[in-house]
């Protein structure tokens, strides 16, 4: 079966679990590095970013004093999640990622061609996720502490990223909660942030429809998970000498990562935007040019035979074992 | 004046047909003596015998538009999607090259000379009978070929970006492919729809599946098929309908698989394994493959746009939508292409090294047609790089004419002997 179909099923399963799991009393904690929104009532686990921002808004003395232990446990849990799954959270688990993939499916179903970034535009916006990450640390710190002698920020700035994250209005909708679809006039800060949120939510929906995984390019969670790109259990490896630079993988990559096709001298291919969806591996026609790995061992490798099968062409004879000496590196 | 011209042309056409028929018969007289050839080669033999006996029956008789193609950078899928039949026109006849010679400088590529020879004289009907001829502007000869041919047939030139790694090159090529699509649609009055694209990509995928299977069988230690026969199979793709070619190759593959089980090869295991790379080898110019194998080498693979590279690279459908499929076809015909007209030679080097490993090659023969500048230019750095990797190499500069056969034979025999000696030295058994 095609990886992208398996992935959709896994995503759907995770979506149901993360959004409704709470009804049956399931919970996998609140340090899950994926957009399982805290505002979704029946969630079966919660997004790392909300508690993280709360922790950061504590006065520094409290954070490294009274709450240091819970904070460290919390960070440790996050670290373990990240180490084991890494960006696979983005490709296989994240509810927001799933929503974007559904939008793509809808577009494909309607037969509408998608859009792609120009190379330069794509590169131009790569810093955004790091900036958002920095802000979601600095702004909360400015609430509990006076940074550089500046006056403390008002409580209206609390959990600033959540206030502009499209997950906040969208994910609770699935448990029938429309209460976050509003513009809050109670204070200028709230007004600005909620207006921005409504705008970004619109852009999320339209952008996600037009371009695959549009939002993920800006997501601060991806920036955080990039910490595990090299050390994570799940990996993506390339065998340069088998690659013809045909570009199939680049064209199929939802994150439009060019390195995957063009770079031949690099082995580890989990790049800053990679969501470990493994689509590149399944559209690569060259034996073992790309492999998905677990703890360094290949679990799924590109092959001509697999390629043809997934493209809907079943070769009458197996062409699996070519080249014969492929084990020599 | 025009009358005289025509008379002369007609005479030339007759002479060319006669000579072509002679060289074809010569090839097949020799083949008839050979034992141990796979039976499934018969349909391919039948096809090429028609070059002597029934030139008008070479192409399938389906009443569809015929689109002549040069090079491998034109995606045939598009031609099929438009409901037409692609015919690769790159020519290998020394007699045709002579007939076209007058229009070219002294040192020029025999392939284009032969193409012009066939077109001018009309000795092979389909060179003029094509409803459209598509020529990608790859090497300088192909660039100029368009002008020469357009006096006889409608020609569509495709601009090929030479420095293909840039974004501009890719987008430019995407547009060129769409321009080709519109020209084909106009020609056949058929809209190339998503469904048609999909079907034609599958058609080619099926051929590619058999082709890869064939290559895999060639990699076997047994040498299940001679390199010349492999070239014949690939050359047949030029003129056959994709589906029937696929069927014939499937039969051949099945026969080869059986021979593999029985341990039946066409070459002794002592034959050094040779890879042929460089300028194209096209029927009836099978001079080099034949010489290699006559000298006791086993031609186990080639990196030629006329055979080994022909059907290797496969387009992947990502979203079965219009744009994506066009881009897929554009990418597959340009990006992995290792033709030396592109500036970057790493792809070719990497591919050769990979083939040397996969097919356990012991010696590489570089084939340069006199006047084929791109391959010639790429040769020195490539030779140095392969030498650094410890590969034995032989460079052959030749054209289509049989005149230099004997001196070439001497050189190739000496090369094969060296390879044998090397194998002994490395401790391998003969
Ligand atoms: S609003 Fe966004 S960042 Fe905040 S908890 Fe929900 S999904 Fe996470
Ligand atoms: S990058 Fe995309 S998939 Fe990953 S956490 Fe962010 S929204 Fe979810
Ligand atoms: S699809 Fe495979 S062969 Fe093609 S560029 Fe990507 S890794 Fe290389
Ligand atoms: S590089 Fe491969 S695994 Fe990573 S996002 Fe692109 S297609 Fe998915």
Please, could you describe this protein's structure?
The complex is a heterodimer of chains A (329) and B (430). Chain A is mainly α and 329 residues long. Helix content of chain A is 46%, strand content 5%. Chain A contains 16 helices and three strands. Chain A has a three-stranded antiparallel β-sheet with strand order 1-2-3. Chain A starts with a helix and ends in a 19-residue tail after the last helix. The model of chain A is unreliable at 316-329 (pLDDT under 50). In chain B, α5 runs parallel beside α7 (140-149). Chain B has one domain (2-425). In chain B, the strands form two sheets. In chain B, strands 2-1-3-4 form a four-stranded parallel β-sheet, with helices on both faces. Chain B is an alpha/beta fold and 430 residues long. In chain B, β3 (132-137), α7 (140-149) and β4 (155-159) form a beta-alpha-beta unit. The chains are: A mainly alpha (329), B alpha/beta (430). Chain A binds chain B through residues 108, 111-114, 118-120, 240-248, 251-252, 261-262, 264, 279, 283, 285, 304, 307-308, 311-313, 315-317, 319, 321-326, 328, and chain B through 165, 167, 170, 194, 201-202, 205-206, 208-210, 212-213, 215-216, 219, 250, 253-254, 257, 313-324, 327-328, 331-332, 335-336, 346-347, 350-351, 353-354, 357-358, 360. Bound molecules: iron/sulfur cluster (4 copies). Residues 236, 253-255, 257, 260, 274-280 of chain A line the site of one iron/sulfur cluster.
């Amino acid at each position: 079966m095609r990886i992208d179909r398996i992935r959709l099923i896994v995503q759907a399963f995770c979506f149901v679990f993360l959004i409704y799991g709470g009804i049956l009393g399931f919970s996998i904690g609140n340090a899950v590095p994926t957009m399982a929104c805290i505002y979704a009532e029946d969630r079966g686990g919660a997004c790392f970013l909300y508690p993280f921002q709360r922790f950061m808004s504590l006065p520094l003395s409290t954070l490294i004093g009274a709450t240091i232990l819970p904070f460290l446990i919390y960070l440790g849990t996050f670290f373990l999640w990240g180490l084991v799954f890494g960006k696979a959270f983005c490709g296989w688990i994240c509810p927001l990622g799933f929503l974007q993939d559904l939008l793509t499916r809808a577009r494909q179903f309607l037969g509408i061609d998608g859009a792609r970034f120009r190379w330069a535009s794509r590169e131009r916006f790569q810093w955004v996720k790091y900036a958002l990450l920095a802000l979601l640390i600095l702004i909360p710190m400015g609430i509990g502490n006076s940074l550089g002698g500046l006056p403390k920020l008002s409580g209206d700035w609390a959990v600033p990223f959540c206030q502009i994250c499209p997950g906040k209005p969208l994910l609770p909708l699935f448990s029938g909660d429309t209460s976050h679809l509003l513009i809050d006039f109670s204070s200028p800060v709230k007004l600005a942030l909620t207006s921005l949120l409504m705008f970004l939510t619109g852009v999320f929906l339209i952008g996600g429809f037009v371009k695959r995984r549009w939002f993920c390019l800006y997501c601060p969670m991806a920036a955080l998970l990039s910490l595990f790109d090299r050390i994570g259990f799940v990996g993506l490896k390339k065998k340069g000498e088998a690659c013809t630079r045909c570009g199939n993988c680049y064209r199929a990559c939802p994150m439009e990562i060019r390195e995957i096709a063009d770079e031949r001298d690099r082995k580890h291919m989990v790049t800053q935007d990679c969501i470990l969806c493994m689509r590149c591996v399944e559209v690569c026609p060259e034996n073992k040019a790309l492999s998905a790995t677990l703890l360094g061992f290949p679990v799924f490798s590109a092959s001509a035979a697999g390629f043809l099968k997934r493209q809907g062409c079943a070769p009458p004879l197996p062409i699996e074992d070519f080249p014969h000496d492929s084990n020599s590196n | 004046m025009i009358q005289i011209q025509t008379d002369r042309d007609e005479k030339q056409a007759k002479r060319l047909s006669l000579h072509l028929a002679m060289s074809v018969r010569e090839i097949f007289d020799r083949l008839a003596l050979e034992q141990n050839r796979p039976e499934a080669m018969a349909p391919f033999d039948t096809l090429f015998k028609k070059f002597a006996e029934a030139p008008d029956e070479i192409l399938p008789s389906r009443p569809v538009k015929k689109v002549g193609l040069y090079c491998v950078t034109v995606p045939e899928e598009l031609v099929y999607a438009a409901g037409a039949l692609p015919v690769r026109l790159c020519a290998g006849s020394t007699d045709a090259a002579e007939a076209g010679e007058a229009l070219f400088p002294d040192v020029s590529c025999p392939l284009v000379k032969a193409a012009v020879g066939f077109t001018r004289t009309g000795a092979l009907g389909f060179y003029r009978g094509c409803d459209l001829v598509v020529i990608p502007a790859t090497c300088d000869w192909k660039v100029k070929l368009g002008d020469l041919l357009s006096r006889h047939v409608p020609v569509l030139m495709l601009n090929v970006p030479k420095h293909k790694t840039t974004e501009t090159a890719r987008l430019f090529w995407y547009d060129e492919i769409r321009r080709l699509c519109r020209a084909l649609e106009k020609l056949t009055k058929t809209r190339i729809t998503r469904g048609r694209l999909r079907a034609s990509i599958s058609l080619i995928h099926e051929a590619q599946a058999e082709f890869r299977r064939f290559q895999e069988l060639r990699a076997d230690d047994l040498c299940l098929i001679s390199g010349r026969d492999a070239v014949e199979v690939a050359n047949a793709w030029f003129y056959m309908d994709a589906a029937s070619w696929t069927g014939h190759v499937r039969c051949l593959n099945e026969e080869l698989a059986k021979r593999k089980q029985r341990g039946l090869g066409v070459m002794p295991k002592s034959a050094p394994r040779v890879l042929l790379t460089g300028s194209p080898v096209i029927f009836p110019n099978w001079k080099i493959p034949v010489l290699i194998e006559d000298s006791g080498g086993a031609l186990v693979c080639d990196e030629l746009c006329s055979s080994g590279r022909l059907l290797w690279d496969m387009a992947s459908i990502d979203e079965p939508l219009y744009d994506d499929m066009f881009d897929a076809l554009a990418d597959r015909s340009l990006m992995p292409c290792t033709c030396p007209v592109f500036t970057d030679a790493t792809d070719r080097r990497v591919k050769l090294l990979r083939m040397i490993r996969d097919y356990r090659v012991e010696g590489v023969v570089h084939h340069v047609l006199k006047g084929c500048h791109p391959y010639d230019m790429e040769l020195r750095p490539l030779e140095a790089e392969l030498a650094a990797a410890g590969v034995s190499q032989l460079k052959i500069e030749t054209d289509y004419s049989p005149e230099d056969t004997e001196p070439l034979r001497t050189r190739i025999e000496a090369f094969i002997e060296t390879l044998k000696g090397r194998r002994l030295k490395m401790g391998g058994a003969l």
